[in-house]
Design goal:
Blueprint: H1 6-29, H2 34-55, H3 59-84, H4 89-101, E1 137-140, E2 145-147, H5 152-155, E3 162-165, H6 168-173, E4 177-178
Parallel strand pairs: 2-4
Antiparallel strand pairs: 1-2, 1-3
Helix pairs in contact: 1-2, 1-3, 1-4, 2-3, 3-4
């Protein structure tokens, strides 16, 4: 997932919450009785939590607080739908977008208190150089035939792919067959 600068995310949250709060105020304006009182209490509660989320919470807790606000707003819309049989679909979609944007990210804590591992004074062992002595027969690592070193087929084998054998028996044991140029 792409990481956005923190100020852009904060702006997105602000825009979404303003739209949602104006929608909630519109819902309150058409409500009456117990619904009006409960929606006013819910609006005040969400405003207090949102203000806390924007002003007081640190960066890591801010998204958690705003996620909680979006969750409560979605719960409010579902309860309104259940009790008044009115579904505010646009507000529900905006709340779901806020819910997704406000989903708390996994925080990785990088500790500055760890001690750095001291530089190792042990050196890696020197790898012995592989030195190939030409034998009486040569084959390619990728081929299935072995040749005499002076044949035209042996000259076509790349240096890094050459495998040398001291005798025909060694080549046969390695799984190679004698080419027609081998006597």
């Amino acid at each position: 997932m792409r990481k956005y600068p923190f100020s852009i995310l904060l702006g997105v949250h602000a825009i979404l919450l303003v739209i949602l709060f104006f929608g909630l105020i519109t819902i309150i304006s058409v409500s009456s009785g117990k619904t009006l009182i409960l929606e006013l209490i819910g609006l005040l509660f969400l405003l207090v939590i949102s203000t806390f989320g924007f002003m007081r919470a640190g960066k890591s807790k801010r998204t958690t607080v705003l996620f909680f606000v979006y969750t409560l707003y979605l719960l409010n819309i579902v309860l309104l739908w259940f009790f008044t049989e009115r579904l505010y679909l646009t507000l529900a979609i905006i709340a779901v977008v806020g819910f997704i944007v406000g989903y708390p990210r996994k925080v990785t804590i990088i500790s500055d208190n760890h001690e750095e591992e001291p530089h190792s004074m042990v050196f890696d062992p020197v790898q012995p150089e592989v030195h190939y002595e030409p034998g009486r027969y040569v084959a390619s690592k990728r081929g299935k035939y072995f040749h005499e070193p002076k044949s035209e087929w042996a000259e076509k084998i790349k240096e890094q792919n050459r495998v040398w054998f001291k005798s025909k028996e060694d080549a046969w044991e390695a799984g190679y067959k004698a080419h027609t140029d081998v006597e």
